Every structure is written in structure tokens, then in C-alpha cells.
Amino acid sequence: MKKLQEEEGFKVMAMENEKLTGEEKKNGERIWEVLRKRTQKAHISQRVWNTEHVRKIKTRGGKPSRGPPIGVILEVVADYLTQAGFIHVARMRHIQIDAPLISALVERWRPETHTFHMTQGEMTITLQDMVGILGLPTDGDVVTRSTSEDWPAVCGAVFGAVPQPNEFHHSGDVRISYLDRLYTRWTDHERDRAAEIYFTKAHIARMLGSWLLADKSGGSNFGCRLVPLLGGRFDDIGRYSWGSAVLLHLFKNLCELTDADRSDMGGCHILLQIWAWIRFPPRY
Description:
Layout: H1 2-16, H2 22-39, H3 44-49, H4 70-84, H5 87-91, H6 99-107, E1 109-110, E2 115-118, E3 121-123, H7 127-133, H8 151-159, E4 174-175, H9 176-183, H10 193-212, E5 221-222, H11 234-237, H12 242-257, H13 269-279
Antiparallel strand pairs: 1-2, 2-3, 4-5
């Protein structure tokens, strides 16, 4: 029965492509044959098609509302955030994540082409979308990760405070609670230039770890291997292609989540959701 349903599904897809030329049909048939044999059986859409039980995706929250008042950030350190290319995301407010919408998009994501397969054709999130939605730089140096560093010393040099042993995750990443602790130093007595620089870099790290490059921990950790990239001047930080890294990280998590046995999703859910709002506006 399942095999019959699968074959019928591909027949429906073929009917939708009747307007294609002969050569295009051949290419399309080859692609779908590869999908059916190699990846479709493990794809979440196959369980949906077979009306089997589908796992509930564990989406992460929107942009965290914790941290210092947004007015303080924009008033005092706006120049630093602008130089680093993070001023637009710093201005964004909390957004409630629409879990059913995210789940529907995952079901239509194809890891082979990094596109959403919709009834009207294939669609994907582009770097142009990234710039328009998050405003992160997409030109410049590749965001790479350092290894084999003295991470407590590196964090201390970049953020002005050494993490405590209990502020490290077993994976080696530093906990977001460490960055939250740095906010308590943002007092009237410590608002000198050095404190502003430490605070701004900690805030950038918090945005990266909690929602821009969030892992499957729910945005509770920040990768220490990215800390050295924040150690230079703010215009040096802005020379990295952070937008490309965020988009790549989201694509990676979408590909992993098409596995029907996985449920935890990392990546920038806000980017995916706002893109869907723009491309598929609600009808009232």
C-alpha cells in the first residue's frame, strides 16, 4: 500500500510538469528518481504522505527579550554596532515563532538542492533576502572557527571577564549565562570606553549564540571558537560575512531536520519566518 501511495505521489508530480519540454521532462525524471531511491524514504514528507505519526519540531524562541534596555544599546554603543554590521539586528524586537509554519516549510525543504519545493516551483532564501531582513554583511572574509585555544583567557581578553568553570558547557562552548553576567557590569560607574567595548562585543556574542547562530541547545550556548573573531576592532568584525554564515547555518539545520527521526532545530528561525511572511503573505 505504501509503495502504491509513493508511486501515485510521483505521478501527481509528473502531471504538474506536463508543460515542460521533452528534455526538461527527462532531467526532471532523473532528479526525482534519485530523490526517491536515495533520500525520499527518510524524508519527513514521506511520513506525511503515508499519513504516519509526524514528530513535533522543537522550535526555539524569537529574538530574546532579556538583556539591557534597547534604548541604552542604541544610544551608547550604536556607533560600535554600526561598524560591526550588527546595528539592524540589535534594533529588532522579540518575535513569537510560528511552529506550524516552520514545520510546513521543513516538510517542503529538499537537502539536495537547498530549496523549498512548492506547487508553483522551487524557492529558497537568498543572500539578498538576508540583507533585506537582517541587514547583516554578506561580503567579506569567511567566518571560520579557531581551535585549540586557551578559551578562558581568550574570553577574558575579548569580554573583560574570565568565565567560571561552571559557565562552560560540556561541549566546550561557553554558556549564555556568562554573557548575561557581563550585563551586570554595565553600571554608571563602569561606563567608560573600555566597558562600552566589552559590553558591545558581549552583546554581539549573545545575539550570535542565542538566535543568529543558535545550536540545538535552544540558544543557551555560544561557540568559543567564534570568540577570536570578535577580538579586533569593530570595523574588523564588520569585514566578516556574518550574513552568509547565518544563512549557511540555517540551511544546515533545515537539511538535518528533514530526517524524520530528528526534532531539535537550530539556526535563525526569525530569518526563516520573516522570509515566509514576505513570500507568502496571509490572506484575510
